[in-house]
Amino acid sequence: MTRSTTGSTTDELRDVARDAMKLGGRCVGVARDWFEEKRDEFKAGRAAGTATGVTAHGYRGVGPRGYRRDDARVREDVCDVLTDSDTLDASDITVTVQDGVVRLAGTVPHRMMKRLAEDLAEDCSGVRDVENALRVGPPPQAARSGMGASASGVSTTGATSAGSGGVGGSATGTPTGGSSGPTANI
Q1: 89 with 109: CB under 8 angstroms?
Q2: Does residue 92 contact residue 139 with C-beta atoms inside 8 Å?
Q3: What is the Cα–Cα distance from 35 to 1, expressed in whole angstroms?
Q4: What integer pLDDT is reported at residue 161 of this predicted model?
Q5: pLDDT digits (tens, 9 = 90+) for 79-103
Q6: How far is Cα 8 from Cα 15, in angstroms, rounded to an integer?
Q7: Are strands 93-98 and 101-108 parallel, antiparallel or unpaired?
Q8: Residues near 161 by Cβ (< 8 Å), separated by ≥ 6?
Q9: Exposed e or buried b for every residue in 19-33, given b needs 16+ CB within 10 A?
Q10: How far apart are the first and last CA of the chain?
Q11: For residue 183, what pLDDT band results from cuts at 50, 70 and 90?
């Protein structure tokens, strides 16, 4: 990287750009060589593993012949993971496991939580597949409490729960004075 101090500013900028391109090219070349080396190591390890039964990546997840984790243990682990997650509201999630297949049912408030619940369940030991039947929306008890108007004396049609002979009921449930019946307030 030689720069002249007597040249113009454009010549100096051109020299700096040329030096930067050379440096960038060297970095790209080094990174490409490293990735090619790692790819070759991976392929060699995989090829050696198929020939000798040994892999270059260890034995995690390889159990004894015929071993299958009990569904009750899988369910327990999935429930523990869902409970331990700080970003997931699992209060309305039902977990069932049959033959290593986890089924998630219920509702969650956000789509992100639906995906997170599936990812967390999938990472548990013994899980073969995850059926995500979670729905995004308010939990059922919140939906029921939204219809609380009919339980407090006013039905959704505007008539009071006391019937047409009731005294002082408007469509909003506020007293109106001496009128009677739901149509007297029109």
Answers
A1: yes
A2: yes
A3: 28
A4: 45
A5: 999 999 999 999 999 999 999 999 9
A6: 11
A7: antiparallel
A8: 150, 153, 154, 155
A9: eeeeeeeeeeeeeee
A10: 91
A11: low
